[in-house]
Amino acid sequence: MNIKTTLKTSVAAAALMALMAPAAQAGGVGSSDAFDTTISGHFNKVALYHDNGEDDGIYQADNSASMSRARIVSKGKINEALSVSGVFEWGMQAATSSSIDPYDGVGAGTANGSESGSTNFFGLRHSYLAFTHKQFGKFTIGHTSEASDGITEINGVGNLQYGTTGLYAGSVTLVNSSTKARGSDVGAFGVSADGTRTSVFRYNTPTFAGITLGVSHSNEQNSGIDAKYSGKFGGIAVDAGIGYKNTAGSSTTQDAQWGGSITVAHDSGISADFSYSELDMVTGTNRDPQGYMVGLGYAADLTSMGKTQFRVAYGESEDATAKDDELTTWVIGVEQAVAKGVAVYGGYQNDSIDQAAGVSYDDVTTVFAGTKVVF
What we know:
mainly beta, Porin, 16-stranded antiparallel beta barrel, two-stranded antiparallel sheet, globular, disordered N terminus
């Protein structure tokens, strides 16, 4: 081989290595050799049929219970014991299932702005830094989940039902059974003691014997604490959590809230779960809002595509808007994995409301079907 050919070969090899080098670092994203950066998220689209007894409609939307989203996660080590990670996550919804309502104030059949879709449904979910020490736990600062976020949702199947209320129909207007007048919406009668995402300092202990503790303080001057457990005994797996949040910093009507949830699953595929929420109102408020949901599930490999999960659940919420009002919810559904990262789901939800002073409303029925694609 002559010198010219050797030089050409060397230059080509060097160029090839230069092109390959960025793809081999930082998970294919980012420019820092010290950090592994990845992009992930999911799409979650759902078709809905709502009927409030007088108004009905068929809609498509992003499933706001587990909205379409994307995230950037960057991880690196400070030393052998201490690591740091940063997360950006944002949600994207052109039409959101949490704003669908077949009654628009004029009459059935005319879509309002939120039903027909918008380019403005774009919101921050997470933006934080977390420092994790092998012996001393994890400290988080930024916009993310406070300690009690998700504490009532250690139950159910995410696209069918979780927490102490139904996932769908929260924005559907109620119809008075006697007068047919339109009233409040379904969501006003639900009770949830779940935390939220906000600007916080948060600390989580290392896991010991399956138990981890968390504490947080938010810019609203609300503080929260939670305890979670995960373990298995023979063929029975248990996941549970309980949390408390002082809400006086951001509310003039509510002092605090607390709740929890538990799921017990057997290797046979049978599972049972329970979640509970309670709101502690300020002195003199003549109501004690509380809600619960109990569910049964079964998961099995019925097809070569992937796992099939069935769920039926029943729940009640009381005193959400006034003493003695009540929301009763039934949910039945199935979710089927069809490929890695791809699932389809569908089901039925019924909401029945009795308001204080003997006021009752027509039942609200919802049929839903959707698909979730994780990337």
